[in-house]
Amino acid sequence: MPRQKVIAALVLVLALVSACTSETGGQASPPAADERPPVAKLTAAPADKATGVPVKDPITITVTEGALDSVELANATGKAVEGEIAEDKASWSATEPLGYGKEYSYTATATGTDGKVVELAGSFTTVAPKSTPRATINPVDDAVVGVGMPISVKFPEGPVTDKAAVEKALKVETSGDVEGSWAWLHDRQVDWRPKEYWPANTEVKVTANLYGVAYGGGAYGKADLTTEFSIGRNQVVKIHTPDHRMDVYRDGKKVKSYPASNGRDSDPNLNTPNGTMIVMAKEKVGNFSNPRYGYTDVEKLWAVRFSNHGEFIHENEENRSNIGKANTSHGCVNLFEADAKHYFDSAIIGDPVEVSGSRADMPTTSDVNDWLFSWAQWQSMSALN
């Protein structure tokens, strides 16, 4: 073959080889930096299009491999929901509660570690309750109550079926260490009482974070409740019915002893029943009509109620001849008028009244029966035990 033809063939082979290879040894070249996808990733909780979102669930926007620039969450009318970006700019959280049955929309932007900006948008809808029953709490703010006073949270508009969820939302704080427990007296009332009587002069704060709590049956808490009150001095009334006296103790020391006529001994239905009750109400003039026993329009002075079973401490000058000598009442504690007023002036709501020596016990079905249960029984009535 002539020399020129050999050279031409070699040039052709080299050209073909060059066309089938690359400078990277056969691998595709990487895309330019500005063509790579952003590294930052935004995530929302709840997710886009979520429905039935509990209003107490955390509402968050988070970013990985980047930092948040802005987040906006608003309801259907455009009103913004308050929130804050964490110090490390990796997350945002709503700081105010959401409304029931409302749609919320969110938008967020973040800058990745690669300098690229990413965006996120979405919406969700909160749970729509079948009902939002109200609740009440007692004692009320600034009250000063006796050492036997329980804390009561009541649900007058409907029963609670998820008692554990409600109980977890309740908190009791005290100025000193006080052992106590919640107990469900029935499905519309949960009470807290200490194991022993409150220490005198204790300051108490109760928080019931009930808004958003599922009570069961489609019912959700209407609003949060709080109260702050004080325990007063330690005063306890002790009545041993066979003694025909009513003794008053302050800080464990007897300070007064009044002659008394208690419930009729011969008839257990008319006894002043055994048990620990508390002062529930005070009336300067109380009506003690009882048609069942044939008397109406009977009014007595200085009436102190200590149960809803029908028992009071009050004056009864008409029974003067038996006061201090015999038990002849229909269950109340009769005192001379001067003694009744003296005691009336000293009593406050929540003072314990301890009765013993009768043939009948106070039924635990009566109202304000917290101290009729042993401590073990009381603890067993908590939904969390």
What's the SSE blueprint?
Elements: H1 3-19, E1 41-45, E2 50-53, E3 60-64, E4 66-75, E5 83-85, E6 91-94, E7 103-112, E8 117-126, E9 136-138, E10 144-145, E11 151-154, H2 163-168, E12 170-174, E13 180-186, E14 189-194, E15 203-208, E16 214-216, E17 219-220, E18 225-231, E19 235-240, E20 245-250, E21 253-259, E22 275-278, E23 281-287, E24 299-305, E25 312-315, E26 333-335, H3 337-346, E27 352-356, H4 375-380
Number of domains: 3
As an assembly, this protein is single chain
What's the alpha carbon Rg, rounded to whole Å? Answer: 37 Å
- Based on the structure given, which CATH architecture of the largest domain is correct? Beta Barrel
Give the structural class. mainly beta
State the CATH superfamily name of the largest domain: L,D-transpeptidase catalytic domain-like
Q: Uncertain regions: pLDDT < 50 for 5+ in a row?
A: 1-26
The chain-level mean pLDDT equals 91
Report the β-strand fraction as a percent range: 35-45%
Here the CATH topology of the largest domain equals: L,D-transpeptidase catalytic domain-like
**Structure summary, number of beta strands:** 27
- Please tell me what the overall shape is: elongated
